[in-house]
Amino acid sequence: MKDFVLPNNSTWNAQFVYSTACKLADIAVAEQQKLTTEIKPDNSIVTQADKLVEDTAIAALANPANNTYVIGEETIKELTQAELNQALTGNCYIIDPIDGTVPYASLTPLWGISIGFAQNGELTDGCIVLPGTFEAIISYQGKVLYGKGIGALPKFEQLVELSPELKNNCNHPSRVLVINQLIAKTKQVEGLNRGVTTYYSIVFPYVYLAQGRMAGICAGLNIWDAAAGSAILRKLGFHQSFTDGTPLTFNIEQDYDFSMFKQGQARSRQMMIVSKDQQFSEDLVACIK
To answer: How are beta strands 135-140 and 160-161 bridged, if at all?
Structure first.
């Protein structure tokens, strides 16, 4: 496991994070062949791979001696309040070990691994890998890189810069609005002149929105769902706000409620909307009743 040693710094090392994400993907793919599942108290599914991938990520990325911590979906409830406070104010990786456990457990490719990063409580960087479709996206030196491999995730040097101008394609009539299951079950979408879809994995909408291939995302999310994608779209100049119009601050304590962390929850304080600009976001939100 020597290759899982964190470089001796507390800043975003994109090459190292990407290498780590690819190794986590290898573990998840291998574990998928011997799948076991459990039902969590909130009736969601967890597999043996979720905890294994997260534990491996923590071993790779956490470095408390260097003020670097990890918040993860499967382990946040094991933290003390003091440990959580250190993570929220220091350098913090935010891990979703398998985003899309339902498709992962169903042996379908619509799942991914998400690693976000916050410094002094502010979301700054992110990495998402999609092992089922061999795609990857990561922030690097103020830019966003993307790649799609053939039969395997691309190597870091094969990733290419995404243009922020791609977001201008988001209002094409073929682009759909992505909503989460809660909105789909409790609200109506009226007067929208484009398609609507729900998801079981938010990382796919984040990756494709970054490429201008979706109209927007409207959802309430836990911090580990949103951290990487939100940081990536921030660098590309996307508009991100709560549905009442209040802009996201990207300060994780201001945008997310950690009061229920012992129950494994750290949800956004309201439903969030992400799109190419403020007016487009307002138009999308106006259609959700």
So the answer is: unpaired
